């Protein structure tokens, strides 16, 4: 029987990589589709001046549904699915760096911090250009007056949804390149790194910490997956709260076309006060907590389903 408080982690060498990658793509796509509306709402809340358009998360949700319909909650989603590539890069980097660090430190916290930060660095390098286009698409509709770029109106209403979506994406992409060149697609890259590297580096050790603490309190026969599903959103709420100020700055830099992180930060404080740093926090936690449940349940299940055949019976669910 496994000792209470000690969760056996499935490591990279325990996995059948063919199963791992084929199942991983499906898991990542399902997760992104589930939480995308909350991400869109968070972006609009962070970019608006004060409460000019929405008073909060629920208000934004209701207004978008009334004015733009359900489709309004998925503006830019088709472009965002390209981040499937970064998702696979993230989990691969995390597992490989974790394996590498284990040669120098047995500490699970050290392995989690270093691997989480490295994985985020790789993923953001791929994701930022996609996010730039996706965020401008998110701001179309009610929030289009807050963005520099606007998709051209489509007169051919009979066009398919797919054609319409990618037509808008092409419009935004061309406008960004014309205005800012290639650098426009990496606007806010440093801010993204300063947001997501700490978030990722914090999430993993908090996740393992909360899992172990829950394991100490739970009955021995309690399924590990339940404990991990509870630990995920707890870690997400903690990491999101700590890193939200930089996330607000990142959103402003990317959508408004700013170039200075420090000046953006100062202007936010001067115009909207310290509470500006909490903008979108509730939407971020609302999106990150269920996201974490989905990611944890999906990822831990993925790893168990991807175990090498000889190890299947050696892991407790």
From TrEMBL:
One of the record's GO molecular function terms: branched-chain amino acid transmembrane transporter activity
Protein localization: Membrane
Pfam families the UniProt entry points to: Mito_carr
GO cellular component terms, A-Z: membrane; mitochondrion
GO process terms (BP): branched-chain amino acid catabolic process
Keyword flag Signal: no
Keywords: Membrane, Repeat, Transmembrane, Transport
InterPro entries found in the cross-reference section: MCP (IPR002067), MCP_dom_sf (IPR023395), MCP_transmembrane (IPR018108), SLC25A44 (IPR042164)
Solcar repeats: 18-100, 107-213, 223-305
UniProt topology in membrane: Multi-pass membrane protein
Family: Belongs to the mitochondrial carrier (TC 2.A.29) family.
Name listed for the protein in its UniProt record: Solute carrier family 25 member 44a
Lineage start: Eukaryota, Metazoa, Chordata, Craniata, Vertebrata
């Amino acid at each position: 029987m496994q000792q209470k408080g000690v969760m056996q982690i499935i490591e990279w060498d325990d996995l059948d990589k063919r199963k791992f990658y084929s199942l991983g793509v499906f898991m990542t796509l399902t997760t992104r589709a589930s939480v995308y509306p909350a991400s869109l709402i968070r972006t609009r809340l962070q970019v608006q001046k004060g409460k000019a358009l929405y008073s909060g998360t629920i208000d934004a949700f209701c207004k978008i549904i009334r004015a733009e319909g359900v489709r309004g909650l998925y503006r830019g989603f088709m472009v965002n699915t390209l981040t499937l590539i970064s998702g696979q890069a993230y989990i691969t980097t995390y597992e490989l760096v974790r394996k590498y660090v284990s040669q120098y430190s047995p500490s699970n916290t050290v392995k989690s911090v270093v691997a989480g930060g490295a994985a985020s660095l790789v993923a953001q390098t791929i994701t930022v250009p996609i996010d730039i286009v996706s965020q401008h698409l998110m701001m179309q509709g009610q929030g289009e007056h807050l963005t520099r770029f606007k998709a051209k109106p489509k007169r051919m209403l009979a066009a398919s949804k797919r054609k319409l979506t990618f037509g808008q994406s092409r419009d935004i992409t061309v406008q960004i390149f014309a205005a800012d060149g290639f650098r426009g697609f990496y606007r806010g890259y440093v801010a993204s790194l300063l947001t997501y590297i700490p978030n990722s580096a914090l999430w993993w050790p908090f996740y393992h910490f909360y899992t172990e603490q829950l394991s100490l309190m739970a009955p021995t026969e309690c399924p590990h997956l339940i404990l991990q599903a509870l630990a995920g959103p707890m870690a997400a709420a903690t990491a999101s709260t700590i890193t939200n100020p930089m996330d607000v700055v990142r959103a402003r830099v990317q959508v408004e076309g700013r170039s200075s992180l420090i000046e953006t930060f100062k202007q936010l404080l001067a115009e909207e006060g310290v509470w500006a740093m909490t903008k979108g926090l509730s939407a971020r936690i609302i999106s990150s907590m269920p996201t974490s449940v989905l990611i944890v349940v999906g990822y831990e299940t993925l790893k168990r389903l991807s175990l090498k055949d000889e190890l299947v019976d050696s892991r407790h669910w």
